[in-house]
Amino acid sequence: MKQHESSAAHRAVEALEERWANVAPQNLPYHILLLSKLLDRVTAQHVRETADLSLAEWRTIAHLDYLGTCSASEIANLAFVDRAEVSRALGNLEKRALVRREPHPRKRNSRLVSLTDEGKKVHAAVRGERGKFFNDWVADLTDAERKQLDSGLRRIIKRVVMIAPDVIDF
Fold first, then answer.
1. How many whole angstroms separate alpha carbon 148 and alpha carbon 3?
2. What is the pLDDT of residues 103-141, one digit of tens each?
3. Where on the phi/psi map is residue 52: left (φ > 0), alpha (ψ -120 to 50), or beta?
4. 29: CB partners within 8 A, 6+ apart
């Protein structure tokens, strides 16, 4: 790491620590939201630099890779985002020939989308880089701590859904 990058990183960590310290430790939702926002910013910058994609476009590609051929509604449901956001992303991705749309065989007013070969290449390239980021982000955690964090977050998610089951479409 270059000296100026190191200084910038230290200043950023100090600013983060100050923000974190201003919120009570029991305000876990705030801390999770802060982490989420930071991850979004880093991800948005990375996918923009790597593949000239917006964050919404990247997430749409990633969900398409996971789901295979599907509808925009299915992507929106899985990602917990507005269908209009997915539709805009799909329109941009279609213009770049990264996705294709085809008529839905059972729903006359619906279309199915899938990744093109080029879309699969873009996904593979970005996903490979993302994997390196993920490993870097958790490098200070032991395997046991990673499992404990995953377990704790799963319990929180389940509890949230038990309290508000209507947030899940099924």
1. 35
2. 888 887 888 999 999 999 999 999 988 888 889 999 999
3. left
4. none
What letter represents residue 67's amino acid?
L
Site of tokens 């704790």: 152
Kindly report the length of the chain: 170
The CATH number of the structural domain formed by 7-164 is 1.10.10.10
Enter the tokens of residue 124. Answer: 């593979």
In angstroms, the CA 136 to CA 125 distance is 17
Domain ranges of the chain: 7-164
Which of 92, 77, 7, 6 lies closest to 47 in space, CA to CA? 92
H or E stretch covering 74: helix 72-79
